Structure formats: C-alpha cells, structure tokens
C-alpha cells in the first residue's frame, strides 16, 4: 500500500468520550485507555498543525459524555463534532456529509471501540470506495476485544498502522520531522511513541 498522503487525509476521531467507560466497568485497563487518549490527542494536534481536517463523533453524548478534554482542547478550529447513532460513521448522514465535505479520500480512524464502531466505520467507508487506515495503538476496546477487532479489520483488507508510522507518513523526511519538532516543542510525544 502507498504511504498515507496528509493532503488527502481526514482524521476521524470516534467516540472517545469521558463517560464511555464508567467506573463500574472493571474490564477496562485504565492505563491503556489513558495512553490511547494521549495518542489520539497528539494525532489531533499534529493534524491541526499539518492542515489535516478532523471529524469527531460522539455516541449518545447524554449518556457517554463529551469528547475527552485532552482531545477536545487540541481540536482544530474547523473540526466538526457530531452525534453518532449508527455504529458506522458512514451510516450517519450528518457525519457522512462532514466527511464528504473535506474533499479527501483517505480516512484515518482512531478511537472507540476497535471491534465495533471503529471496525464498522472502517468497513463501511472501505465499501464506499474510501482508502481507510486504522491507527492500532490509537484505538481501544477492553480485554481481547481490541485484538479481535484488529483481526477483523485485517480480514476485511483494512490497513492498520501505528501512531509513529502515521506521523512519518505525513511528514516524509528527516528534515521535515526535525523542523516539525523544532516548531512545535509545546507538543510532547505521547506515551509509547518513540519518534
């Protein structure tokens, strides 16, 4: 597969909401979840600084809360945040319209949950003729559901890559990487990402 072209990419942040996993959910690895949120927040900030459009979804915001503040605080001014009722983003007309409005054909997906909303979204976008890539370390489902979701994506022919790989696909050269880091020292690299 070719490298991800930042000039043809939309970053889609799926359902990373404050109350998605309430305290009673004992199956949630809170450290893994927190690290995933930090990676999504970082990618959102990188997208903003590189001019990559961002579309954010919130499933049942009344019950699941709003987008995690670490992410919401880094959203580009032109980012669109929309409620999501159907699991696949493409099956929500307002979200599909927002994706279409970007004019981009490559969708990079991050967020919750790897085996359901991310998988459904990736498959439906792929079926609609979009190039789709899922950032495997910036998605999350509790327990074995995350790995099951990644296996399902692989069977469906959906690309996966890491946060680090996406950054370097967008940047392309050592010179640009150094210039980006020099210009954006306020943007610390998230846990688990070695640039």
UniProtKB/TrEMBL annotation:
InterPro entries on file: Hydrolase_YcaC-like (IPR053152), Isochorismatase-like_dom (IPR000868), Isochorismatase-like_sf (IPR036380)
SUPFAM superfamilies (alphabetical): Isochorismatase-like hydrolases (SSF52499)
Matches recorded under Gene3D superfamilies: Isochorismatase-like (3.40.50.850)
Domain Isochorismatase-like: 9-164
Top-level taxon: Bacteria
Record-linked PANTHER family: HYDROLASE YCAC-RELATED
Name of the protein this chain belongs to: Isochorismatase family protein
């Amino acid at each position: 597969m070719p490298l991800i072209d930042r000039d043809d990419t939309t970053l889609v942040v799926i359902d990373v909401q404050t109350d998605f996993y309430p305290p009673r959910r004992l199956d949630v690895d809170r450290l893994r979840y927190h690290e995933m949120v930090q990676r999504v927040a970082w990618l959102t900030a990188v997208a903003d600084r590189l001019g990559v459009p961002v579309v954010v979804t919130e499933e049942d915001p009344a019950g699941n809360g709003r987008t995690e503040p670490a992410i919401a605080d880094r959203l580009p001014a032109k980012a669109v945040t929309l409620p999501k009722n159907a699991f696949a983003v493409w099956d929500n007309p307002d979200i599909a319209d927002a994706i279409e409005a970007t004019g981009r054909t490559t969708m990079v997906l991050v967020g919750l949950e790897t085996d359901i909303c991310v998988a459904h979204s990736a498959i439906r976008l792929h079926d609609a003729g979009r190039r789709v890539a899922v950032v495997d370390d910036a998605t999350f489902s509790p327990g074995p559901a995350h790995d099951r979701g990644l296996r399902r994506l692989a069977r469906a022919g959906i690309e996966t890559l890491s946060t680090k790989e996406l950054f370097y696909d967008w940047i392309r050269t050592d010179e640009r990487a150094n210039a980006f880091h020099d210009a954006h020292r306020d943007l610390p690299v998230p846990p688990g990402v070695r640039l």
